[in-house]
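Input sequence (122 aa), recorded before submission:
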Amino acid sequence: MHVTNALAELSAPAHEVTLHIYMEPSDAIIRGVMDGHLHVGVVPAVNLPTSLETRHLYDEPSYLYCAAGHPLFAKHDDRLGFADIAQYAAISPRYPLPAEARQVHDALTLRASASDREGAAF
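Predicted structure, token format:
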């Protein structure tokens, strides 16, 4: 991943740079960059302000996942339909999503929300 390589290079002893990495909701990161509290931010490329200079870093696919012991865990992907998935509680992301992804999430049985992907993993 390009981000990991860039962070390793920046934090090399010769650069005398100290990195502080924070996990925040996208809107908080964007505000932090715009008001100067943050030098750089990494957020999904959805509804970004045109006043910010942006660079594409990588594509991040989204997958459905569940814990071992969940009724869907043992089902093979090609035998799992949307109706099967919609029977169970799902987590709604509170971070920006492309319209197509938002439509898919909105059709699920949403019982919780998370501000980031890491939070959804719990």
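Checked by second reader. The chain has a mean pLDDT of 83.
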